[in-house]
Amino acid sequence: MSDKIKVGDYLIVQRQKYMKLAKFNNLNTTVQLGKDQIEMKLAENHPYYTTFQLIPKQERGRRQFTLDALSTPSEIRNLKELLIKESGSDNRNITDDRQSQSLSSEEILKLREDCESSSEVIGKLVESSKSFMTKTKYSQEKYLKRKEKKYFEYITIRRPTIRILCDIYWRLDPEKLLGVRFDTLSQIVSYSGVCSVGNYLLYESGTNGLLPAAMLNSIGAETEAKLVHLHPGNVAQKQALMAMDFPAEQQGRCLSVNIYSVLRHYYQQKEATNGTEVAEGEVKEATNGSEAATVEEVKIAETNVEEPEIAITDGTKKRKLEDGADNNESVAEGEPNAKQVKLDKEKQSWEIENESAASTMEGKFDSLVIVAKEHPYSILKALLPFVKPSRPVVIFSTSREILTECYVDMKTEASVTYLRLSSNWTRQLQVLPDRTHPDVTMSGNSGYLLTGYTVG
């Protein structure tokens, strides 16, 4: 992992408290921050956490900027020390009549074009304000903070972390994370006991790759542990996983496979080696004789599952395998069809991943984590036989009623003990001198966790 910014990296572009995830695809990459378009080519080969000044390009009607690296962040001027010289005792005599600023909108736009830095622009605005000197010190700081947010000319490029990625996704849309906030994510990782030893099983149905990235980050780089990441779709969401830029060896320990495909492969392989009757007996024994988890029902469920879609390189469209087609047979006459050869190669990749995941499932796992949009109980019953005794089980849902149903069913079957249903709620505080209080706007409940340990 390089300490310098290079083409192909995912970057966190930060301007004050605002952060954005962007990929540095090539030297022509630009990042949109509000109405500002920033060219990233001059950031290449600079160390991470470098602060850059935005240099405007001389193009009228467009707010485009290039980057100029600062040798030290202390070059950023402190406006509070420069502009706050005297303050009023209170704001009772200040009237908001829209007449306190003597500069017009056209003059401010021209001022922004003529001045070399945002500090000069804000300084001119303060000089032209009739009420700035009569405001209290706190009001003056708020005024400067608003102007800094609008005219701030510095950005910092940071390396992606799990905390930053979670905050960015949560701010954009909590539903893209299935409602998993950072405090909830930390509890999921903690309860599951993910570490550098063992194998771990995860099912999630769409968190932009944040859950597998967090668990793989806890596993570490120099270990023999594995993570089997199950998902319901044809392709797993891996944006956060790719943004973390794990080493290739660590990245290879995460096997992302379709849950229906790998379960079908596992049971078909088991029937081929041990016979149907032995497989049925083992599954019944593992599920304590539960009638709902017999092999017959597994077979019925699997027969209704469609084959994963296979990408055909002829164009950008995806097609499903035709019913009854035998993809292992070669063409009877003439040379093999080029499309068929490509199709076989593409199919072979996910088949290899299924085989690797199925072999890991034979040895069973040290924990099970389920974060799903669907009702988790049927998924739990399908995956619970693959977890070792006395190992943690963690289920997340935004609905308390769903987890309550799971709690009652699991209590009845006695397959999991020490069941606990908990909710997560965090309060963010503004901590400033003489102004410490909870944030005015903050998120509420971040879902519920059902935790327990398997019974041997």
From TrEMBL:
Coiled coil: none annotated. One of its GO terms (cellular component) is tRNA (m1A) methyltransferase complex. The keyword tRNA processing applies. Its main location: nucleus. Belongs to the TRM6/GCD10 family. PANTHER family: TRANSLATION INITIATION FACTOR EIF3-RELATED (PTHR12945), TRNA (ADENINE(58)-N(1))-METHYLTRANSFERASE NON-CATALYTIC SUBUNIT TRM6 (PTHR12945:SF0). Substrate-binding subunit of tRNA (adenine-N1-)-methyltransferase, which catalyzes the formation of N1-methyladenine at position 58 (m1A58) in initiator methionyl-tRNA. This is tRNA (adenine(58)-N(1))-methyltransferase non-catalytic subunit TRM6. It comes from Anopheles atroparvus (European mosquito). The lineage of its organism: Eukaryota, Metazoa, Ecdysozoa, Arthropoda, Hexapoda.
